[in-house]
């Protein structure tokens, strides 16, 4: 066995390794196991003494970059490597950063197009894939490289957008060797050639590696060339980035049309997201306006009595298809008119306070389930009392919740439900814009902004689902009845002043009080009170209101202020107690009556 090399598989099973034989004859196997042991030890020593040349590495990496007159960069890389089947199995993997940060922190953008790849002068199969901000080039196919071998790869590609214009100089930054090399690099050079000669004083070259230290020698030439040469090997993942500054107009600046194309390419996803958000918002507003009150503008017969079995809050709830403080106030007032409660307005300094007293047992006798839920939660025991102040906020909030829950259970989905067609349309718009927007932005710097815009579609959709409701067939009939009642009460004052009663019943104090909660619920309490005053006379109307058994406290001298107090003031006070942080009540016109002058109503 003298003068022969021995091969065996390494511990990774990735190929055969050559082991240098020991000088002299191998030990003679004299007996059984002892002789075999000596042979194995000798083989292991031979492998340990194998030369360092068996390590996988890049022997030489030369980069020749030529800046073209149109501003693009034509690059040819020659990479000679040592392949042992561990890292370089099928071929070479080269990474090209497409976005990053320059030596001075400036943002960098590159567009790389691989032209061809050669191995030892012959065409080599290759493919590219985008991985985040990196374009990764894979060479070779399913076949393995010969092991061991020293192939030479030639990679030819072109790059754009790597020249950043300045006031007096343009700057080119090139990642000559990315940090993706998992093996050390023994030798490397980078050559950048300008399209025209430039004096050395007009050039400024820099280079940096992740290894740190003085790793580079830089040479400039008046022919318009700069050359970087490694002065010592680079460890794995060190990388090499070079930058060359040269006078303006050496390379042509990109045309405005090209700049617009680049800008649109970078912002395409964000533009799609913003456009989708705008279309979604417009669609939601238009559909909401179309379906929120489908019978308001139609021909509706006048109604002089409310629908049987529905409370004032129920009519307001079906009209608005959501709950608010005025619905609470309307049913509170209706329960007082039905002789279950007494509403008292009491002076509190410069403001008016409110107190609600329960006057009798039998909340189950109230006509609707929502009124029963309200009274039972607010004043559970006979002779209970509550002041509408912040210290009673927890009790009033429980009554608010019980009242709202009762209305929701009764009306949804029996009388109205979410408008399915409108919601499906909104979801389709959101999906059709969000999907492509995120796809186009997945590698763009605008991805965070695009995600923010897409995420902001969620509250728009949620609000749309909550607001856009459609009535059922029974709900439409109830809406028509409520609208007829509202129009009848709104026009009652004009009819009374003209002396035209029509088919409406006589408006006396009993009828006025009975329908006042419905007027509050339908936002026509002022018109209804004016109709009462016109029908019986202002003095008689004030005396009648002063004699109501369910209202006490402030002397009634102004019927208009009385009606506003039953609507705006009571609603605003309830809202301020339940939601103390809301300084303005959006549904009733604010807090103007929550604490008005106390001496007269």
As a whole number of angstroms, the C-alpha radius of gyration is 43 Å
The backbone outline, from C-alpha atoms, is elongated
DSSP strand (E) fraction?
15-25%
* Largest beta-sheet details: 8 strands, mixed
Explain the overall architecture.
The protein has 4 domains: 6-50, no CATH class; 57-254, Immunoglobulin-like; 269-291 and 420-467; 312-418 and 470-578. Helices cover 38% and strands 24% of the residues. It is built from 14 helices and 25 strands. The protein has helices at residues 32-48, 256-291, 312-320, 325-337, 369-378, 393-411, 420-441, 447-467, 473-490, 492-498, 509-521, 525-536, 538-546, 559-578, and strands spanning 6-9, 16-19, 57-67, 73-82, 93-97, 99-101, 107-109, 111-119, 122-123, 126-131, 134-139, 152-160, 163-164, 169-177, 185-193, 204-209, 216-221, 225-230, 240-247, 341-348, 351-358, 385-387, 416-418, 469-471, 551-552. Strand 1 (6-9) and strand 2 (16-19) form a beta hairpin. Helix 3 crosses helix 9 and helix 12 packs antiparallel against helix 14. The relative contact order is 0.09. Residues 1-32, 46-53 and 583-600 have low confidence and may be disordered.
How is the topology of this model organized?
Blueprint (H helix, E strand, L loop, with lengths): L5 E4 L6 E4 L12 H17 L8 E11 L5 E10 L10 E5 L1 E3 L5 E3 L1 E9 L2 E2 L2 E6 L2 E6 L12 E9 L2 E2 L4 E9 L7 E9 L10 E6 L6 E6 L3 E6 L9 E8 L8 H36 L20 H9 L4 H13 L3 E8 L2 E8 L10 H10 L6 E3 L5 H19 L4 E3 L1 H22 L5 H21 L1 E3 L1 H18 L1 H7 L10 H13 L3 H12 L1 H9 L4 E2 L6 H20 L23
Parallel strand pairs: 3-15, 20-25
Antiparallel strand pairs: 1-2, 3-4, 4-12, 5-11, 6-7, 8-9, 8-12, 10-11, 13-14, 14-19, 15-18, 16-19, 17-18, 20-21, 21-22, 23-24
